[in-house]
From TrEMBL:
Belongs to the methyltransferase superfamily. UbiG/COQ3 family. GO terms for biological process: methylation. O-methyltransferase that catalyzes the 2 O-methylation steps in the ubiquinone biosynthetic pathway. The keyword Transferase applies. GO terms for molecular function: 2-polyprenyl-6-hydroxyphenol methylase activity; 3-demethylubiquinol 3-O-methyltransferase activity; polyprenyldihydroxybenzoate methyltransferase activity. SUPFAM superfamilies: S-adenosyl-L-methionine-dependent methyltransferases. This is Ubiquinone biosynthesis O-methyltransferase. The keyword Transferase applies.
């Protein structure tokens, strides 16, 4: 199987792995938005007792929080160092109900079709060569009636200015080179990937940032960061 990953992207996040759980590090935005995305997931799909796979889990920020919410979580990624950091954090924090594997989502989908109540894939689609393949694999992994949660960046002038120029070069919220504009996805494009994979769109939210208060919030504006919730037909 051809691995749907960019070696440069894997290396980039591998080099930053030791900073993953420092809330004031390069991953500060992930720590700040995690309560918002976890709350949104919980509203639509209460996690207690659910079996969940977190695709592109990195150092495990979302995986860990979903396990603490009562889910049985498998975090998967193809970058070795962040996975080791995730495992170490779970051990040190005493988090129960979470495990990690270095495996491609397409490979896991072939291994465990319809094996999960919910699938999350957050801030990952803009880093892979073939995002549609990831969406298809997520649809295969989820049980009939189950939920798939996705998030990524919109592709337009506003997102270029705010997510790349603003976040990486002006405010320095993210390391330079974190994102490649050409890989951003319009909501209509991602929604089409979902429909093609047999997923029905249920909800969408935008993720906004206020530089004055330095706070994130969920709302209706999907111009920059956005989240989609889909369900597989029963």
């Amino acid at each position: 199987m051809t691995i749907n990953a960019d070696p440069q992207e894997l290396a980039k996040f591998g080099e930053l792995a030791h900073r993953w759980w420092d809330p004031e590090s390069d991953f500060k935005p992930l720590h700040q938005i995690n309560p918002l995305r976890l709350g949104w997931i919980q509203q639509l799909c209460p996690l207690a007792g659910k079996r969940v796979v977190d695709v592109g889990c990195g150092g495990g920020i979302l995986s860990d929080s979903m396990a603490r919410a009562g889910a049985s979580v498998l975090g998967i990624d193809l970058s070795t160092k962040p996975l080791r950091v995730a495992e170490l954090h779970a051990m040190e924090a005493g988090t129960q109900g979470v495990e990690y594997r270095e495996i491609a989502v397409e490979e896991l989908a072939a291994e465990q079709p319809a094996g999960f109540d919910a699938v999350t894939c957050m801030e990952m689609l803009e880093h892979v060569p073939d995002p549609a393949s990831v969406v298809r694999a997520c649809a295969t992994l989820v049980k009939p009636g189950g939920w798939v949660f996705l998030s990524t960046l919109n592709r337009n002038a506003k997102s270029f200015l705010l997510a790349i120029v603003g976040a990486e070069y002006v405010l320095r919220m993210l390391p330079k080179g974190t994102h490649e504009y050409a890989r951003f996805l319009k909501p209509s494009e991602l929604a089409q990937f979902c429909r093609d994979a047999g997923l029905g769109l249920q909800s969408s939210r935008g993720l906004g940032y206020n530089p004055l208060t330095q706070r994130y919030s969920l709302g209706a504006d999907t111009d920059v960061n956005y989240l989609l919730a889909c369900r597989r037909a029963p």
